[in-house]
Amino acid sequence: VNYGDAIAIAARSVRRRLGRAVLTVLAVALAAALLSSLLIAGTAAKSRVLNDVSRGGPLTGIRVDAAAADVGALDSDNPPRGAPRRLDEKARQRIAALPGVRDVVAVVVNPVTVIPPAKMPAPSRRSSTSPTTASKSGTGLVSGDTTPFRDELVGVDLARVSNVPVTLQAGRLPDATSTTEVAVTDGFLRRLRLSKKDAKRVLGLEVEVGAPRLFRSPIGTVGRGRWTRMSIVGVVAQEVGDGQFLVPIASAIAARKWGLAGANAGATFGVDSSPYSALFVIASSLGQVGPVRAEITKVGFSTSAPESLIESVQRYVHVVEIVLGGIGLIGLVIAALGIANAMLAAVRERRREIGVLKAIGARDRDVRRIFLLEAATLGCVGGAIGTTAGWLTARVLAGVVNGYLQKQGLAGVKLGVPGAVLIGGVVGATLLALVAGTVPAQRAARMPARQAMGDR
Amino acid sequence: VSRHRFARSIAVACVAAVALASCSHSERHANAPGSRSTAPPGDVLVAIGSDATFGADLRRPLSEAWPQLLFHEAFPISTVLINAADGGVTLQHALTVQVPLALEVHATVVAVWLGDIDVEQHVPAATFEADLDLLVRRLRSSGARVLLGNLSRAEPLAAAYDDAIGRVARARGATLVDLAAALAATPTVGPSTHVNAATSRVIARAFASAVTTT
User: Fold this and answer.
1) Which of A210, A278, B58, B80 could cross-link with B64 by S-S, CB 3.0 to 4.6 Å?
2) What is the pLDDT of residues A3-13, one digit of tens each?
3) Which of A:135-174 have CB within 8 Å of B?
4) Burial of A114 (0-12, 13-18, 19+ CB in 10 A)
5) Which of residues 95-124 of B touch A (CB under 8 A)?
C-alpha cells in the first residue's frame, strides 16, 4: 500500500462516515478557533502594548513640573510638587542630554477666559438641562449660552505630538504653526451639554479666548484681555495639562507673555512665571523611566510618571496570558480527545476492512499509515476551518472593541492578517490530530487479520 | 482625575490588545485629512473708550460689548482684540493710559468712542478737541488706522464735540463713524448713554460698516 492508495482509502472512509467526520472536524475547528483567537490576543497583548511601552512612547513619559524636587518622593508615581522653580530652555536642554532620554517636549499652560460659540450644535439627545435657549436654525445649530468661563490653554509643540499623551477623537490636531486653530477636549463638549458622539459636530465652530492681564491706572486696578478667535479643528483626549483647549505652543506663549507684562506679573490670574509650565520627558524604554526620574531629581525638578501603574499592567497582562494559555490547553485536550474518540470508533467499525487489507498483504505500517492519514486529514481540514473562523471572529471583535474604544475617547486599531497564526493553526491542528490518532492507528495496525475478519 | 484617566487609558488599551487580533498599526495621533487654515498674522484691533466701550451697563460685557462684536463681525479670525476701555473715564485718561497700551501692542486698527464722560464733566469743547487731536495724532503716527465714533446726545456741548470729532477725523486721516445717525435710525435701542445689548450691536455694526466700506 503506497501513499496514494492510503490517501484514497482514507478519503473513502471519510466519505462513508461523513457525519462522524464532520463532527470530528467541527471539534477540531472549534479548538483551533479558540486556540487561534487566544494566540492572536496573546500576541497583540504582548507586542502592541508592552513592546510599545518598552520601546518608549507616551506611556514612558515623565512629567517634569516647574517645581523643586522632593528626593524622598521618587517612589511615588505622582508625588507632591515642591516650591515653584523656573523651568526654562536651558533646563530643557540639560534634561534632554541626560542618559536614557529619548525626547523632551515643552508644555506651556496659561489661564484664559473663553467665550463659547454663539451658535452651537443641538444636543443629539433631548435634554431638559440643555442651555440652548433660542430657535433652531436650518443648519442644525441653536443659540448657545455665551457666558464666559475660566479655563486653561495647553500649549504643546504639536510637531512632536506623537511623544505626548494626546489622542485624537475627531477632526485633526491644530497645525503646529497656526495661531487660530484649537483642539478641544471632552470637558468642553460636556460644557456645551454635548456627548462624545457629537465630537464631529463642533468642528469648525469658533471660540473666543482671552488671556488676562492686570493693569494699574489712576482709576484703580483693572483686568484686560488679549482676545483671539480660534476655530475648533479637532477633539482630543489629552493628559498634558488640565485645560480643555490644546493649541500650538506659540499661542500659549503669546497669551502668557501678555499676562506676565501686567501688574503683579500675572500672579493675580495664576499666570506661570516659568518659561515652561512643564516638560514631557520620554524615556528610551520602560526600564529607563526610574533612572531618568532619579537624574531629573538630581537636576532639581519635581517629576511624576506612571511607572508603577505600567508595571502593574505588565503583571496583569502576564496573568491574562497564563489564563489564556490554560484555556487554550483545555481546548487542545478536548480536540485531541475528540479525534482519538472518532478514530477509535473508526477502528472498531472498520475491523473487517482492516482484516481484508491484511489478508491481501497489507503490512502493519500500511494500516497505521491509512489511519494516520485519515486523522491528519480531519485535523488539517478542522484546523483550516477553525483558524479561519478564529480570524473572522477576531475581525468581528475588532469592530466591537473599536466602537468601545471610540466611546472611551481612544483611537481604534486596525486588524492585520496574522499569517503565522493562520499557518500555525492548520499545522498545529494537523500535528495534534496525528498525535491523537496514533493510539487508534497503532491498535488497528496490530490487529491480527483473523481476529479482524472473524469479529463482526 | 488626570491620573485616573491615564490609568483608564492604559487599561482600555490592554483590554483592546487582549481582545483584538494582531493590529498592524495604531491610528493614534493621526491627523485626519482636512484643509488647514494657517492664517497669516492679522490685525491688532484696540478699542479705546469709556463706559459704553467697556460694556459697563451690559449683563455680559465680555461677550456683548461692541468691540467684541466688532471683532467678531468685521475682522478675520487672525485678528487680536484688546479692549483698552475703562469705565467712567475721560478723553484725558484715555490719552494717558489707553493710548500707550495701543502703541505697546502695535495696534493696526484703533476704534475710538469717547466724549460721554467729558460731556458730563463739562470739559470745554476746545480742550476736548485738542486732546482728541493729540490722541489721534499719536495713534496715526504709529501707522494705525483710526476709527472715530461721534456722540448721540442732545446737549449743545455734545454737538460741539461732534463737530470737533469731525474736524479731527478730517485733519488726521481718521475714519468718522457716524454713531449718532446709526443710533437715531434705530430708535428702539434707547439713548446711547445707557448702552444695552441692542445698542451695542448697532454701534458694532456702524463701526463694522466703516471698516468694510472705507
Assistant:
1) B58
2) 777 777 777 77
3) 146-148, 161-162, 165-168, 170-173
4) buried
5) 96-97, 101, 105
